[in-house]
Amino acid sequence: MGRQLSAETIKRIQSVYGFKTKKSLGQNFLADPGVISDIADACRLTEDSLALEIGPGLGVLTGELAERAGKVCAVEIDGALIPILRDQLAVYDNVSIVNEDILAVDAAALIEEQRTLPGGRRLSHAVIAGNLPYYITTPIIMGLIEAGVPADLMVFMVQKEVADRMASGPGSKDYGVLSVSLQYFCEVKKILDVPSEAFIPSPKVDSAVVQLVPKAEGRLRAGDEALMMRIVKAGFAQRRKTLINALSGGGFEKERALAALEACGIDPSRRAETLSIEEFVNLSDRMSERI
Ligand code: SAM
Q1: Mutate to test the pocket of ligand 1, among 27, 53, 135 (most ligand atoms within 8 A of CB)
Q2: How much distance in Å is there from the Cα of 118 to the middle of ligand 1?
Q3: Is residue 2 part of a domain?
Q4: Ligand 1: distance of its center to the CA of 148 in Å?
Q5: Last residue of one domain, picked from the residues 214, 244, 274
Q6: Is the pTM value of this prediction over 0.90?
Q7: Distance from the CA of 205 to the center of ligand 1, in angstroms?
Q8: Is 210 in the same domain as 261?
Q9: Which residue has the least CA distance to atom 12 on ligand 1?
Q10: Is residue 220 part of a domain?
Q11: Residues above pLDDT 90, as percent of the chain
Q12: Are 198 and 55 contained in the same domain?
């Protein structure tokens, strides 16, 4: 077991270092040992794993990851947390702390650089994890995925409402642009609901942990991915409307949209929220054909 910090210990560290929590950086620190070890377990780490942690904060999850992985690389934007992290994690010789903005880091290059150990051994398994700062959850996740960052698994704590949107399928009220754009790349599973009392300070919203498994290379892909996303956005921008009306309202030529819908066997009176990812891909491929 790692060195999990209790609520009292978190408060003591904050007072010893004179550290003031910054709301603007989404700083809500995990103080529930059960949740911390559940997140670390969900990362399925072994000695052959590199864990890239986003936003280590006071290092509570970092320690748990370090117990299980070959190496942990933790990227933290707040310079005031770096000395605290160094002290808290001094017992581990497999943790490297990087003081950077994750949105400005080339995560693929960082993983590549960090996965080779000093003796030359290369860690074969890469996991990205973090209790994310909620003000930038979507840019972080979509940025990593769209850049094709080489991760075998990702485990993130996010706002519960965002987790529901990420993991929902067709027919659900939560199914939308985020669900389609994420599930186009990954299998998404919500694995744990986390109440706001698990954090110090408590955020105003409840949270959940999601597990993302990138789909294999040969996955279903649209010929023109930008066009597919335009279709998805137009469809959900007016989600109460029929697909044909939402598409023509979203700038697509009505005749062309109708012909494409019919060609792939999608009833034009359906709503976007009923379409599977496969149907969006087919529709996009038909729309991109010259008629
Ligand atoms: N992992 C810690 C925990 O569970 O207690 C802290 C989680 S807290 C919700 C989010 C952390 O992300 C904070 O430490 C915050 O400073 C950091 N952070 C915020 N924006 C960031 C960014 N752009 N790049 C890297 N870290 C960031």
Answers
A1: 27
A2: 28
A3: no
A4: 22
A5: 214
A6: yes
A7: 17
A8: no
A9: 55
A10: no
A11: 91
A12: yes
Taking only the tens place, the pLDDT of each residue in 135-166 is 999 999 999 998 989 999 999 999 999 999 99
Q: Is the CB of 27 under 6 A from ligand 1?
A: yes
Domain final position from 172, 193, 214:
214
pLDDT tens per residue, range 60-92: 999 999 999 999 999 999 999 999 999 999 999
Based on the structure, what is the number of domains in the chain? 2
Asked if 65 and 187 sit in the same domain, the reply is yes
Same-domain check for residues 264 and 187: no
Are 182 and 240 in contact, with CB atoms under 8 Å apart?
A: no
Pair 139, 234 in one domain: no
Q: Residue 136 C-alpha to ligand 1 middle, in angstroms?
A: 10
Tokens of 207: 């949270």
Q: What is the pLDDT of residue 4?
A: 58
**Residue 251: which CATH number?**
1.10.8.100
Nearest CA to ligand 1 atom 2: 57
- Based on the domain organization, do 233 and 118 belong to the same domain? no
CB-ligand 1 contact for 25 (6 Å cutoff): yes
Q: Distance from the CA of 231 to the center of ligand 1, in angstroms?
A: 34
Which structural domain, as residue segments, surrounds residue 283?
A: 225-288
Q: Do 118 and 253 belong together in one domain?
A: no
pLDDT exceeds 50 at position 291: no
